[in-house]
């Protein structure tokens, strides 16, 4: 008898039996943790995709209704992808603290591929070396305390130009009306004016000065770019249909991405040609990025220096512009629909700022009621109503449900912010709720999960403080510098549009007259 052969056969058989027993045991223990409950009305192939395909209602509103029916955590099948939707602050906290690392991925998407320079954008990139490196550069070189004074100077300069330009438009309207009266009201679409303000701030910080003639093209490019970011592309969920480009979204994305890349390339080459000419104080963030990647430092994940510089600036410009402009538009809309709130803000501004100068950054800490108004605006209209989607990079258990690797996760903060268990009378605009003991200490920086407009955990927006101060200053300058009112007795239309940012669907037309002494405006540069 061949004993070595027999022994080998016995060992092999024993090994296979043990593997079989282990697999049975493992499968049973794994299946002991149930999957997240699925929503009803799934169709073959497309799953629940048809339930979200509405041109009339934003997706976060549809998902909020589904949460009322299926509970605070439920599962959707969107074609070949599984999506878990969380609509509860307790579960959101578990996701973004206990399982923060496991859920730190970003799902691949056609929009991320084109608009993120094939995932060179740190906001859209998977958790990894590129994301860590670029985020570190942004935090240390753009958002650190040592850079705060430079950022404030740019923001206050842009705010001054904003007030000056509105006053100049009012002067022109008065001259055309052949009137010397200060009671002539100017009709403005504040959505467009806030876009100009935010673009001025971000262009100043990222790229330095920009000529006026370049503005209209840049604004149009950024608007097109961001509007397509939130498009529901069939190819993302049914990859085998991507070649058909149903709806033509990918073709539009390629065109918009090309326009944005051309804009960034022009700015990049301009900065390179000026290298060594600017003083350290004159350098902007693109200068800093060029130095960081060109001064003997290795590129990350195979991306060359130019790609990383352009992708990072594109991310910051795209992420900061529409979200901030939308927040300002919502804030002013809510205030104009509530006369008592407008009067309280004006009273606070007159007390702490007076009427002999414009509002500046140093005033913001004293404007506690204005801060409450901004918090309440973020509660009702968060910059990203459902945050950017996460993806599980490893298996985990959330709220006693099994989440497998590759599952996508959406946190519907809009629904969380309107939870009656956290917020009495949740649909009402009540800034005073943040001045009471119950919510006085609640802030928006990701520590209080009943209010997380900027997210939380390792994927939290790194520019929370900057964005918050920008909205506070932008609202304060309009209400302090001008008498603002609705064009009629009808309330401002508060209809939302879909997409990532949930902006106001209709223009915000207002009537404006100067509120400060004329000499204050005339002392601003270039007022005639």
TrEMBL record:
GO CC, any one term: membrane
UniProt entry tagged with the keyword Cell membrane: no
Positions contributing to heme binding: 461
Key words, A-Z: Heme, Iron, Membrane, Metal-binding, Monooxygenase, Oxidoreductase, Transmembrane, Transmembrane helix
Cellular compartments annotated: Membrane
Matching SUPFAM superfamilies: Cytochrome P450
Cofactor or coenzyme needed: heme
One GO MF term attached to the UniProt entry: heme binding
UniProt cross-references to InterPro entries, sorted A to Z: Cyt_P450, Cyt_P450_CS, Cyt_P450_E_grp-I, Cyt_P450_sf, Plant_Cytochrome_P450_Monoox
Family recorded in the similarity comment: Belongs to the cytochrome P450 family.
PANTHER family, alphabetized: CYTOCHROME P450, CYTOCHROME P450 82C3-RELATED
Protein name: Cytochrome P450
Organism of provenance: Cuscuta epithymum
